[in-house]
Write a structure and sequence with these properties.
Elements (H helix, E strand, L loop, with lengths): L2 H4 L20 E11 L9 E11 L3 E3 L4 E7 L3 E10 L20 E12 L2 E10 L8 E12 L2 E12 L1 H8 L18 E13 L3 E11 L2 H4 L8 E12 L1
Antiparallel strand pairs: 1-2, 1-12, 2-3, 3-4, 4-5, 5-6, 6-7, 7-8, 8-9, 9-10, 10-11, 11-12
Length: about 250
């Protein structure tokens, strides 16, 4: 995955979730960042990807270097947004002897719509997305709820989530097609999956810079874990960035 591509699209930084309409000017930030993604696929190494973290934040638009979203509607208690995100959970058959001969499963390029409701420091919402790399091959839905905390100059956001993947999507992401089946890699067509997990983000704002940390964990549904090409039950990722404001 080219670094220049990562700069254009990425995972939305949910940790900055807040009702829209309170930003009066555009803020730009630039600095170093790093992504760590634990691979759930058999024989595939974990990914460590250094990235330049460039962000733009305005009243409606947010581009976080590894994330972009646009607020279509916002009020003091509700926000409806469209977003584009990349998920580094794919695989290249050349990276694993076990996966040799399978189709290349690229990272997910998700186009999403999401709605969030705010009640003080609490928030909850729903997000529905489709993978543009495999457009028309299923969809994913996520229900989440969380809370923001402030500790001095630190802002912490924690949430829990339930993630639904349709049968077509699980087959694309975790299935073994008939023409890919071997004696040690049997044909597998998974059904729909319902996974659960949580996310924690921490922001430390300085006078002219910011530190951002994001940790995400998802416990995979047994439908996914039973796939012969999957050897992990937890999908884990971490992102860190230190940016300078200008």
């Amino acid at each position: 995955m080219a670094v220049s591509f990562i700069l254009l699209i990425g995972c939305p930084l949910f940790g900055q979730s807040q009702p829209g309409g309170d930003r009066t000017k555009t803020v730009y930030s630039l600095g170093p960042g790093i992504i760590w993604q634990k691979s759930i696929y058999r024989g595939v190494d974990d990914k460590i990807i250094p990235v330049p973290a460039f962000s733009v934040r305005s009243r409606r638009f947010s581009f976080n270097g590894i994330g972009a979203s646009y607020q279509i509607y916002s009020s003091q208690k509700f926000k409806y947004s469209a977003g584009l995100s990349v998920k580094f959970s794919g695989f290249n058959p050349d990276d694993s002897d076990y996966l040799e001969g399978m189709r290349k499963k690229r990272f997910q390029l998700n186009l999403s719509n999401s709605g969030e409701y705010f009640l003080g420091q609490f928030f909850s919402g729903l997000k529905v997305s489709m993978d543009l790399n495999d457009f028309g091959r299923g969809w994913e839905g996520e229900v989440f709820s969380g809370r923001r905390f402030r500790f001095g100059k630190f802002m912490l956001s924690a949430r829990i989530k339930a993630v639904y993947e349709s049968p077509k999507m699980t087959n694309v992401n975790y299935g073994v097609y008939e023409n890919e089946a071997l004696l040690n890699r049997p044909y597998y067509k998974p059904s729909q999956a319902l996974s659960s997990g949580g996310d924690i983000s921490i922001i430390r704002a300085y006078e002219k810079s910011s530190l951002f940390l994001l940790f995400s964990l998802k416990k995979l549904d047994q439908t996914i874990v039973k796939s012969p090409i999957v050897d992990k039950s937890l999908d884990i990722s971490f992102f860190s960035a230190y940016t300078f404001n200008f």
